[in-house]
Amino acid sequence: MKRLENKVAIVTGAASGLGKAITLLYTAEGAKVVAADINEIALGSLKDEVMAKSGTITTVIANMAKEEDIENMVKVAVASYGTVDILVNNAGIMDDFSPASDVTDQMWDRVMAINLNGPFKAMRSVLKIMLEQKSGVIVNIASIGGLQGARAGAAYTASKHALIGLTKNTGYVYAKSGIRCNAIAPGAMETNIGATIDFTKISPLANERIMPGMALNPRSSNPSEVASVALFLASDEASFINGTVVTADGGWTAY
Q1: pLDDT at residue 170, rounded to an integer
Q2: The 179-186 sheet, strands edge to edge
Q3: Phi, psi at residue 249, to the nearest 5°?
Q4: Which secondary-structure segment (H or E) carries 141?
Q5: Rounded Cα gap, residues 57 and 8, in angstroms
Q6: Is 26 designated active site?
Q7: Backbone dihedral angles phi then psi of residue 163, each to the nearest 5 degrees
Q8: Beta carbons of 35 and 44 less than 8 angstroms apart
Q9: How far apart are CA 140 and CA 88, in angstroms?
Q10: How far is 179 from 138, CA to CA, in rounded Å?
Q11: Identified catalytic residue from 26, 156, 172, 174
Q12: May I ask the CATH class of domain 8-246?
């Protein structure tokens, strides 16, 4: 039997990178996936790829900074497959490595809206379903930037620390309700998240204080390596893992 047979999963940021890898793996393991992203063309390509392998997928355009898109995403899942068993909050953006003194309101608000507020609102929505059915799994894609202070700028670092705190609180509070909530803290990955960074705006202070640590990274991961962790956490094999963070960084933070 496949590990996610007949489970219904929502994956955000599903059209590329880690989200795509998770979607392909989940559908291969029997899940019915609602793939959400802002990129309609890439979603179409993903759908074709999944269906060519006899997987089950529904796509939906969703901007995680918009509450109405998040609510619609959950409604599409329920309308298509009847419930939500798994939520993977993967969509996220980087900042420009700015220290706190240089962070603009625009940058702060944008990073928080997508990296923290979006996952929170998606969790709030699916938790109503999971509480009623007394089961569910939430996997939040955090970052080693949520464990340490020098992997990004102040906005991104704060957003991922907050997401980890939200993960721990949710996992603990709903532990007796059949619901698990965990986070993954990836290191560097071979994805297109770098496209959300404006390297021309990286300050001399960030270059001095943050960039030297990048040289300690042993390597970047392929998204499929981290997707395997997301599969494990969503499966019954992780039934006793709750309210915690799994670091997947090749040993970078071991230094």
Answers
A1: 99
A2: 56-61, 32-37, 8-12, 86-89, 136-141, 179-186, 245-248
A3: -135, 15
A4: strand 136-141
A5: 10
A6: no
A7: -65, -40
A8: no
A9: 6
A10: 8
A11: 156
A12: alpha beta
Instruction: Give the residue ranges of the chain where pLDDT is below 50.
Output: none
Whole-prediction pTM: 0.95
- C-alpha–C-alpha distance, residues 51 and 119, integer Å: 27
Question: Half-sphere exposure of residue 55, counting CA atoms within 13 Å on the CB side?
Answer: 30
Token pair, residue 138, equals 């939430």
d(CA 121, CA 103): 24
- Phi, psi (5° rounding) for residue 129? -70, -45
Name the residue type at position 4. Answer: L
In whole angstroms, give the CA distance from residue 43 to residue 70: 16
State residue 210's pLDDT score: 78
Indicate the residue type of 83.
T
Which segments of 82-153 does DSSP mark as H helices, in order?
Answer: 105-112, 118-133
Q: Which residues of 32-60 are buried (b: 16+ CB within 10 A; e: fewer)?
A: bbbbbbbeeebbeebbeebeeeebbbbbb
Q: Is 16 helix (H, G, I), strand (E, B) or coil?
A: coil
255: which 2 tokens?
Answer: 């230094």
Bridge partner residues of 184 (DSSP): 141, 246
Q: What pLDDT is recorded for position 203? A: 81
Q: How far apart are CA 175 and CA 215, in angstroms?
A: 39
DSSP 189: B
For residue 204, the model assigns a pLDDT of 85
- Contacts for 31 with CB less than 8 Å, ≥ 6 apart: 4, 5, 6, 7, 8, 9, 56, 86, 234
CB 174 within 8 A of CB 131: yes
